[in-house]
Specification:
The complex is a heterodimer of chains A (329) and B (332). Chain A has 329 residues and is α/β, with parallel strands linked by helices. Chain A has eleven helices and 13 strands. In chain A, helix 4 packs across helix 5 and helix 7 packs parallel to helix 8. An eight-stranded mixed beta sheet of chain B has the order 7-8-9-4-10-11-13-12, sandwiched between helices. In chain B, strands 3-2-5-6 form a four-stranded antiparallel beta sheet, covered by helices on one side. The N terminus of chain B is likely disordered. Classes of the chains: A alpha/beta (329), B alpha/beta (332). At the A-B interface, helix 7, helix 8, helix 9, helix 11 and strand 11 of A face strand 1, helix 7, helix 8, helix 10 and helix 11 of B. Strand 11 of chain A pairs antiparallel with strand 1 of chain B, so a sheet runs across the interface.
Chain lengths: 329, 332
């Protein structure tokens, strides 16, 4: 298919708070192709989750304001859609898996009733499903994520399941509808390393089977490297680098990507990096120009004044840094 | 810049064991039955050593730390600090002893009182142990502590919600170091934080360890972190230690099937790292509930090399090469 499934163009978003506005997203450009697996990495607080929530329109809309930009899903702007159309997209087109499965499942309702609701309102819309059919589909979904004894689990409450099983239930729910795009927001962060490995393998298999697009948000870089085709690096509300995943990890160009990849402890040893100097900027008063300049070791005068746009360094490798402006040197 | 720890020939370990744990058991009585959180473990930490205790959640590693620091009274077994028996709970320990063994908890958000400012938080250990006599001395000492963990002086009257998670953990570390301890128990100090802040805190901990000649019991579930930090590593599974070896031996020659499963589950970034991982060990199953531990080897249900004997008999610890202990029927 031609074009992109999802395209975010110059998205600017701020939160109205007491004492000013938090200028969080600062010109985000982000695309996901059809059947493409895209990774999104960055430190905590770099607004990765905010970007994803903006796509689903599930930000607290009382304080969040989108001042500029558009989010095109199959060529249509989600921001301009009415409530019913957005609901339709949430029901049938895009699913999201959240970081913490304990918070994503409602503790008051059994797994079965939560799954039944999803089937009733997303899969079953338009056609009438009998109770038995709904139940059969629920069991089928749980069986797909390798949960043992799905009939019994339908009667369980979230608290009766372990963290890994809860995350599997969340995955089962996400895959219930005939979706086009899956947003996995740090799906393994709250799990143990062996369970994380199992959940990710499962996710990979299901994505392969359904042949859909995926956005994998994470700060566990190894995970992103194993799964995705293309990776974005995000810092303080804008994308700083994008490249094919293999190339990005082998040869990161932006000073921030370099630092981020260097801080991961290696299995081969060689000591621990001292980390990236400084801290994330405050969004109330973000630094002018490139938001990374107070922490950057290659800082130049222009960085403090003007924000760099994406410069194409190699094919499919774009960097938002003045060091890579064409015609320099 | 990298702070390489323990390059070859640089290992400066003392001769004495600062902490020895022998056959430590800690059971909890619940309505469901007896939870055997720690079920007979032995290990020792030398002076100036960073000892890594690795395991999944539910394996009992935090219980070990809490028992050593005295939050729990051990059900059975012996904990020795130098030559002193400390197998009692905190109430029965002398103040001098409490001063020497300190702990840093996992989540700085819940281990720091949100209604107190940093001055009050760091002041408490100084008052309790009579380290500084008057208010002015204490303020000076607190400023010194903040400087030690590289936080600005004006943080002194801030509250914990006003600062970031990484900085909060730095305050926890400063609080632990306020009494000039010799053994610090680090209970997953960085697992609630992301990689770049983790790097900062770890390099700070290593620097402090060298400056003040501390010993660490480092509890974590991150093996690649241990590869870079610890001088010896022990793996825990369901309240028992499966494998215990020096760092180089442990990573070059992992023997226990569980260690191999853990190593192969780590997502890595480079090809060299990929080569180090044991091949074809897929992780299966989950850690069983510690209430009804199955008979025989507790790892039996998830093991990829299980034999008949494993379901009947619990293996005992054997020494394969010097200092490399494994508890598995494969090595008899």
């Amino acid at each position: 298919m031609k074009g992109n499934l999802l395209e975010i163009k110059n998205l600017n978003l701020h939160f109205e708070v007491f004492g000013g506005s938090l200028k969080v997203l600062d010109g985000v450009n982000f695309t996901v192709g059809y059947k493409e697996k895209v990774g999104l990495i960055g430190e905590a607080g770099s607004a990765k989750t905010t970007t994803m929530k903006a796509i689903m329109k599930i930000l607290g809309m009382t304080t969040a304001r989108i001042s500029k930009g558009e989010i095109l899903f199959k060529g249509r702007d989600i921001l301009k859609m009415n409530k019913a159309e957005v609901q339709e997209i949430r029901r049938k087109k895009i699913s999201m898996i959240f970081q913490d499965p304990t918070a994503a499942l409602n503790p008051y309702f059994s797994i079965g009733s939560q799954i039944r609701n999803i089937i009733k309102y997303s899969v079953g819309m338009g056609k009438k499903l009998t109770k038995a059919e709904i139940k059969a589909r629920g069991i089928e979904a749980l069986r797909k994520v390798m949960l043992p004894d799905p009939e019994r689990i339908l009667n369980f409450y979230p608290i009766q399941l372990s963290g890994g099983m809860r995350q599997r239930v969340c995955i089962a729910m996400a895959f219930l509808s005939n979706l086009n795009l899956l947003i996995a927001d740090e799906p393994g962060t709250s799990l143990d390393v062996t369970i994380k490995d199992q959940v990710l393998r499962l996710l990979e298999d299901l994505v392969e089977e359904k042949d859909i697009s995926v956005i994998l948000v994470s700060h566990a870089l190894g995970m992103v490297k194993n799964i995705t085709d293309r990776t974005y690096v995000m810092y303080a509300g804008s994308m700083v680098e994008v490249a094919k995943t293999v190339k990005l990890f082998a040869n990161p160009l932006h000073p921030y990507s370099k630092a981020l990849i260097a801080v991961v402890p290696k299995l081969t040893g060689g000591g621990i990096s001292q980390g990236i100097p400084g801290y994330m900027p405050e969004y109330l008063n973000p630094p002018p120009g490139c938001r990374f300049h107070p922490r950057c070791s290659y800082v130049m005068p222009i960085c403090k004044v003007e924000k760099p746009t994406f410069f194409e360094v190699k094919e499919n490798h774009q960097v938002a840094c003045w060091l890579f402006k064409k015609g320099r040197n | 810049m990298h702070v390489g720890y323990l390059k070859k020939g640089e290992i400066k370990l003392g001769k004495n064991n600062i902490l020895t744990v022998k056959n430590l058991k800690k059971y909890f009585i619940t309505q469901q039955g007896i939870v055997k959180a720690v079920n007979g473990i032995d290990f020792s930490i030398k002076e100036g050593e960073i000892f890594g205790l690795v395991g999944e959640s539910g394996s009992g590693k935090s219980t070990v730390a809490y028992t050593v620091v005295g939050l729990y009274k051990p059900t059975e077994g012996e904990i020795t600090y130098y030559n002193q028996d400390i197998s009692t709970e905190s109430k029965k320990r002398s103040k001098e002893l409490k001063k020497k063994i300190q702990i840093v908890f996992q989540d700085p958000g819940t281990s720091i009182n949100p209604t107190k400012n940093i001055h009050q938080i760091l002041e408490l250990p100084l008052i309790v142990h009579a380290i500084a006599k008057n208010y002015k001395d204490r303020t000076d000492k607190i400023k010194k502590l903040l400087k030690m963990v590289e936080l600005p002086e004006d943080y002194i009257y801030k509250y914990s919600q006003m600062i970031g998670g990484g900085e909060r953990q730095m305050i926890s570390i400063a609080r632990a170091l306020a009494t000039n301890p010799s053994l610090v128990l680090l209970d997953e100090p960085t697992s609630a934080l992301d990689v770049s802040i983790q790097a900062k805190i770890i390099s700070m901990l290593i620097k402090l360890q060298k400056d003040f000649n501390l010993s660490y019991l480092f509890i974590t579930h991150d093996l690649s972190l241990m590869r870079n930090v610890a001088s010896s590593v022990a793996i825990m599974y369901l309240g028992k230690i499966c494998e215990n070896a020096s760092r180089s031996e442990f990573f070059q020659n992992p023997l226990h099937p569980y260690t191999q499963m853990l190593l192969s589950s780590i997502p890595v970034l480079t090809d060299e790292e990929e080569k180090l991982k044991p091949k074809k060990v897929k992780s299966i199953g989950e850690i069983p509930s510690p209430v009804n531990i199955p008979a025989g080897c507790s790892f039996y249900s998830r093991c990829h090399e299980k034999m008949d004997i494993c379901s009947k008999e619990d293996p005992v610890m054997v020494e394969i090469t010097k200092g490399h202990f494994v508890r598995c029927h494969l090595f008899k």
